[in-house]
Structures are given as C-alpha cells and as structure tokens.
Amino acid sequence: xxxxxxxSIRSMKGGGRIVCLTAYTTPIARLLDPHCDxxxxxxxxxxxxxxxxTTVGVTLDMMIAHGRAVMRGTSHACVIVDLPxxxxxxxxxxxxxxxxxxxxxxxxxxxxxxxxxxxxxxxAFLTSRGxxxxxxxxxxxxxxxxxxxxxxxxxxxxxxxxxxxxAAAVADAGAFAVVIEGTVEPLxxxxxxxxxxxxxxxxxxxxxxxxxxxxxxxxxxxxxxxxRFVKRFADLSPLVSQAVEAYAEDVRAGRFPGAxxxxxxxx
Length: 267
Ligand code: KIV
Ligand code: NA
Known about the structure:
- This protein has a single domain (6-235), classed as TIM Barrel.
- The chain is built from eleven helices and eight strands.
- It has helices at residues 6-10, 26-32, 45-48, 60-72, 92-106, 120-127, 144-148, 157-173, 185-194, 215-218, 236-253, and strands at residues 18-22, 38-41, 78-82, 110-114, 133-138, 177-181, 199-202, 210-213.
- The protein has an eight-stranded parallel beta barrel, surrounded by five helices.
- Helix 4 runs parallel beside helix 5 and helix 6 (120-127) packs parallel to helix 8.
- It is globular, with a radius of gyration of 20 Å.
- It binds 3-methyl-2-oxobutanoic acid (KIV) and sodium ion.
- GO terms for molecular function: 3-methyl-2-oxobutanoate hydroxymethyltransferase activity; magnesium ion binding; methyltransferase activity.
- It is an enzyme of class 2 (transferase).
- Keywords: Cytoplasm, Magnesium, Metal-binding, Methyltransferase, Pantothenate biosynthesis, Transferase.
C-alpha cells in the first residue's frame, strides 16, 4: 500500500474532509499515521519541543532532522515539512535550493511555506520545478516580529481583502493545498468556496476542507494555555506528572526496581 501523495490530497477538494496533525518524532508519527491523511512537520516544533518563544529561531537543519524522524515512523500519510524562517523569503532560488534539501534529505512529499501574494512567484517557481507546495495564509507565525502578536484576522474589510487576495494568489501559483490560520469563519468559508484547491484550517472554522492542530495541543501535552481554536481530545500532562510522581516515590522508598525487574546470576 502506497503513501498518500500531494496529488491525492489535492483531489480531496469537495470530497471527504482532510485530517491533518503535526508530528515531530518517530514514535508519535507512528501513532498518528494510520488515522491521518496529512502529517505536518511544523516549525511549531521550535516552541513545542525546544521551548522557544516563537518559530523565528528554527533552522533548516532542525526541520530536516525531525522530517527524517517522522518519515521513519510513517507509511500511509502524506508528509509535509515546513520551510523555516529565513530559508525561503530571500529569493525563489534560495527557496528552491532549501526545499530540495528537505525533499532529498528527508524523503518527504512536499514543503510548506508562509505567505500570500508576495510568495506567489516563489510557489510557481517551486511547483513548476517539481517541488509540491502547501501554502499558508491568514495568521503567519513567522511574521510575529513585524505583524505583532497572535490574534485572529479578517475582522476589517481591509484585512479580509488581503487574505482573500493571498489565498487566490497561492492557489493560482500552483500550491496543492493551503493552510488558513486564525481567520474568521465567513472569510474562511468564502475562500474555501472560491478556491479549486483544499483549504486546511487551524482556527479557521469548520468551513475549511480539512483541519490541522498541533498534536501536543490536542493531546494536552504542551501547555496550560488553551487557545479558543484548540480542542483537547486528551489531557495527558497530568498522566505524565502522576507517573513521574509514582516513580519518584517508588525509587525513594526502595520499592523500585522489584524482583521482577532484577537480574540474578544463572543457576
Ligand atoms: O508549524 C505548524 O505546526 C503549522 C501548523 C499549525 C499549520 O504551521
Ligand atoms: Na508552521
């Protein structure tokens, strides 16, 4: 059985909803793979795994290392790796060079990059030269230092018009799908209806053709803060705390390791 391709994801437009989650490591990727159409090695790993404040410090080498780990744990889902901040914005040639490194060194199916109209030329350059692109419009975390903060978008007509133009531009440029992040429902609905490619929403309502969440958020593993758009499908943090507390007690009391965990000389 073969892995889903970016072409098969694209063809899900108007069909079933696309199920996408982030994955950064082999064991988690193994658990997610049978249930997901699309797995995203997101640069959110900088915050989720490395404790960074934003995604701006994530490097290409980090993305490649985690992309390889996710590929080792998957056989069904289409795997897309984020191009990190600074690895594609300078020129379409820089974007191509680094996207090819990701494809060649991880074996993944395509790359994701943030940006609308200003990235259209780059997306066309990549897709016409064999690099499938998952676009990303609306809230763009890599712009945190210029856009200022994480807030939902599309409230003013000016903001909505920009996101509408961005979505149309990346679709025209050849992206196989587009993430819409942190965007009010009517706008996400309108964009989804107007594009020939699937929209995958995060904080962009049920109107999108698919959904993505950060796995650690929906598992209750990442932080105590739960943004409105996250639904906790599990609450794993307390389970981990309880297990570690029990381990500490057992070690301190001399209850662990027990006889069943202990090697004895052969008779
Ligand atoms: O980095 C990431 O995890 C993402 C998704 C949440 C869309 O870009
Ligand atoms: Na990202």
